[in-house]
Queue: 4 jobs
Job 1
Amino acid sequence: MPPWRRTFTGRDEVERFMTGAWPRYERFRAVAVVANGQPAAAV
């Protein structure tokens, strides 16, 4: 994660963060994974 503490709760919060921050990291990609038995994304 970026160098700040932040918790995202729910799809809408994650979407707002990713669409706002993602353009700055153009060479990164997200991969669907499972973390603690739940859907997650690895970057």
Job 2
Amino acid sequence: MSKPFASRFRPEPADPHAFDTRPPAREPGPPGVLLVNLGTPDEPTAGAIRRYLAEFLSDPRVIEIPQWLWQIVLRGFILPRRPAALAPRYREIWMPEGSPLLVWSLAQARGLQQCFDAEGLPVRVQAAMRYGKPAVAAAIDSLREQGCERILTVPMYPQYAASTTATAVDAVAAAAGALRNQPELRFIKRFYTDEAYIGALAARVRAHWDAHGKPEKLLLSFHGLPRRVVEQGDPYYRDCMETADLLRRALGEDGALVEVSFQSRFGAEKWLEPYTEPTLKSWASAGVRRVDVMCPGFLADCLETLEEIQGQCRKAFLAAGGREFRYIPCLNDDPAWIDALAGLVRRHLGGWI
């Protein structure tokens, strides 16, 4: 007897009622919530960083250059050199429990699970990294093992960009594409207009000012993108500007202190402006002495906030003549943010709970 062809789909658990003529009613199980953040190396070593960058920078949504050309640049020039240069920067921010991005992402998942447990809602929450571990496919497997046949994916980016939010959708779709018995899927596209998210940001700023006094300027530093992608239709810049306007309104008269910039420029082409570090240097040269910097596009502190902003940008501002540079941490596991996240997710679970 010939062997059956190997299937492209993963095997499913045996269903004892698969051939019943009158099977019992099927229960959908608890809804699952998948929180997806960008990703991080497993450890602050050149080898781990190389593996992470190879996956991250090979995503065509992240680097929109023909892959045959980009892979030559990536594997011939970037991966042999960049990881060793980044390792000390990662070591500088590494926490006892691991990468800050992963530590805070897991804390957010735990906090969200605790909210639903306290309400008696049968919801299961998992955190995943788009690049690195825990992988999206593994997190979906975990939710399915807990009986979840309906999964809401929450890309942990308040503002939409194809290089962040869309990559999370791609990863979930790819994982579902390998399944014979797919779960029902929903996605949150963006949530910067959510009043509770803006309220959590404003409360974070107010608490900081109550403890340390107000600055001369509050700079909102968003992650940058090549200007080209916005010209081609990416709505990210508009999302960032609207976020800033909403926060200005929430801060009332103090909203006049708010300015916007973009960080983490990569490569030679023109990115969204103004750039964060040059902005801070120009302010210091013009006589601005006290600034606060906040990164509303990041929900968890990471290399870009702790090392780039709190480290590099602080040094640049002080070296240019500034006197006081204060970084306002990301929302991380702030209770106000966890409550806001729970409310957001609860609304998107409508009809499932």
Job 3
Amino acid sequence: MTVAQRMWLTPVARQRLEEELATLKKWTAETSEADDSNAVAVRRAQQGRIQEIHELLVNAVVGEDPPNDGVAEPGMVLTVHFGDPADTETFLLGVRGADYGDIEVYSMSSPLGAAIDGARVGEARHYELPNGATQEVTLVRAVPYGLHEH
């Protein structure tokens, strides 16, 4: 039996996903009569996105910030550096495809997200880049999204 991973979402991100889901369902109903190959491909893509959004919403944790314990986990805004302390990046460890405003989002399934998950401030981790090289990343700061200065 597979246990689905709980996904952290802000209330606004959940609302946007629900609105997208309603729109997709409406479009799917409107295009169900068309029978050409383009319409079939569009319906398949819509059904795939509907399923993806449905799974996100079913497994969503909404309105609960993770603990402010400095550990990298979903719902935390992370500042990391890549080998050189001057080369920093700040991002939300969350769900791609949900809008969180102007902050970059990395998912748990991304190489960076998977590598940094569970790290504590000051801890270095490594992950593989698309070109096969290994990248070091060090967690500098981790705060819950709700406490992050926007």
Job 4
Amino acid sequence: MARHKHSPVAIQLAMGSLAVGLVVLALKGYAAWVTGSLALFSDALESIVNVVTAIVTLVAVRLAARPADDTLPYGYHKAEYFSAVIIGVFITVAALLIFREAYYGFITPRPFTADPVGLGVSIVATVINGAWAYMLISRGRRERSPALQADGRHLFTDVLSTVGVLVGVLLAIVTGWHQLDAVLAALVGISILWSGWQLLRDSVIGLMDVAVDPKQLLRIKEVISANAEGAIEAHDIRTRRAGSATFIEFHLVVPGSMSVEAAHAICDRIEAKLREEERDAMVTIHVEPEDKAKHSGIVVI
């Protein structure tokens, strides 16, 4: 079985997320300080969560890169799903803190300053976040990293909420209704809470050893069928995803008179082609004699 190893790109992206998170936190913190806006303060608070999630993502990606050992013979791939659960918890805590501030801000409205520099800085931070979110999602899919994709989706949610906050702050300035600032802060909290729920849901699904999608399974079956010449059939095909790894298991029925060496050659051929089709594929083939044929699954001859 080939050992899984995350590409250096995934680790570099995780480190980049931490750097971007710190820069954006500084920018948004400054914007909240100079304006005194509760909504912008809530937005900055979410950036603290972004920094924490970037740290968790970095640890998870590096841990998932470790090869299988005696303690975890199937590898550390699921570390990324656990990281997404931790991120979801932090997001939920941030949302609750924002709701608290929004409540007191609505009861006792706070005046804020329409500082153009502060608003401009917040816009710059949003542009940086948007560009990096796109990078994480696109490259995370390419690297098949749940942690990087989760971090990117969270950042994209942050971008949307910040845009809403900036529009609302401008409306509050025009209308003079300072309670709108608190309402916007609460809306940011709801957006963050929804993001956290999605991360937790996807992570739990990943931890439950979900199978590959039907289109991918069909392609796996086609690869097995096209490279199983000499065998009789392949049945009981099972798949599961764990981080960037795809586990594929099935039974391969061969003629009873076939030598072990010949059967092994067929298995090697199938495994090689599956790994070409599915990067980081972990293939397990159980060879059986022809009296074990079920005449189902993939019939070769």
